[in-house]
Amino acid sequence: MGVGRMKGWRDRFPCGVSRIWLYLVGWLWVAGCTSEPSARESALPPSWRLAQDRPSFSADSAYAFIEAQLRFGPRIPGTAAHQACGDWLVAQLRRYGARVYEQKGTYKGTPVRNIIASFGPDTTRGRLLVSAHWDSRPWADQDPATAQQPVPGANDGASGVAVLLELARLLSQRPLPYPVDLIFWDAEDLGREGVENSFCLGSQYWLSAPAPYPPQAYEAGIHLDMVGGRQATFLQEGYSRQYAPHIVQLLWEVAQRLGYERFFPPLPGEPIIDDPYYLATQGKIPMVNIIQRDPTGRGFFPEWHTVRDTLEVIDRSTLQAVGDVLVAFLYSFSPRHLRPQ
Ligand SMILES: [Zn+2]
């Protein structure tokens, strides 16, 4: 995740507009949209209930999965720590009964190791994709003093992976009746601001190389990034609203029914160039990106791309909210519910 992801948002504006004006326009846009009536319209009848027999997401377990990743050190592609963490991820997923496929190759000169863990029926239709990126950024370049040091990536990387691992644990205990793939993207955070398509190399590689299931196999997908920060808010990211508005509405309504509107306010956020952007535009998969955004539109989380992205920034209550919403969603719906009505 980098400033490069803001490119789609910047593209809406003519070159040379100063950043302060963009912030102001962004803030006014968000503020102006808070009264947008469609954001609060219900997609579900009042009598509809969440599945009651769903498993319980453990934030303690997810937290422990973050700790385990950090113990390897920064997960930078090409390093021994990255190799060891990838091996550990594969072993964990196999332990939870997944069919694990490692998609390895080189993309734009970078080694890529995507890890795909499949659960449920082996079918090329009606699959659901849940993803996160498992690499961490080599440069803490949001602070010039530490720009050559790696980011620990507790929130930016490890938090999404941890929620997926906890979900794998639950899927092993309470299988879903439909096929779900947990995909751990590699090489997401090696981008440089201003260099076209330099972030998200793993998902771009997946779109160009053979994998167990092609993009057409997926009915929909949910991507998690930075889902463990203190006092996080997850706005309805712009490309998600564009390419998967029906799923955005369902997810945020599930959050509201669980009492998590504080974390999931039904407010629009600006578009972000991220893994789901490529999956939606090139792979034609309706994707929702659950990613922390400051409601004022000024950034991700305060420690983003700094050496301070450590366990200190992680709050179990945020992991719990995201995990509960994800589990309630997966166990209450099936991919056929996720087709546009
Ligand atoms: Zn990042």
Protein architecture, described:
The chain has 341 residues and is an alpha/beta fold. It has a single domain, classed as 3-Layer(aba) Sandwich (Aminopeptidase). 35% of the residues lie in helices and 13% in strands. The chain is built from ten helices and six strands. The protein has helices at residues 7-10, 19-33, 59-71, 80-95, 154-173, 201-208, 238-243, 245-257, 275-281, 316-332; strands at residues 99-107, 110-119, 127-133, 180-185, 218-225, 287-291. Helix 3 (59-71) packs across helix 10 and helix 8 packs across helix 10. The radius of gyration is 19 Å and the shape is globular. The two termini are 32 Å apart. The protein binds zinc ion. Residues 1-2, 137, 156, 189, 305 line the site of zinc ion.
Strand content: 5-15%
Q: How many helices? A: 10
Question: Separation of termini?
Answer: 32 Å
User: Compounds present?
Assistant: zinc ion
Structural class: alpha/beta
Average of the residue pLDDT scores:
88
Q: Low-confidence runs (pLDDT<50, min 5 residues)?
A: 2-39
Number of self-contained structural domains: 1
Provide the gyration radius in Å. 19 Å
Q: Looking at CATH, which topology would you report?
A: Aminopeptidase
CATH superfamily: Zn peptidases
Most strands sheet: 6 strands, mixed
Instruction: Classify the helix fraction into a percent range.
Output: 25-40%
Envelope shape? globular
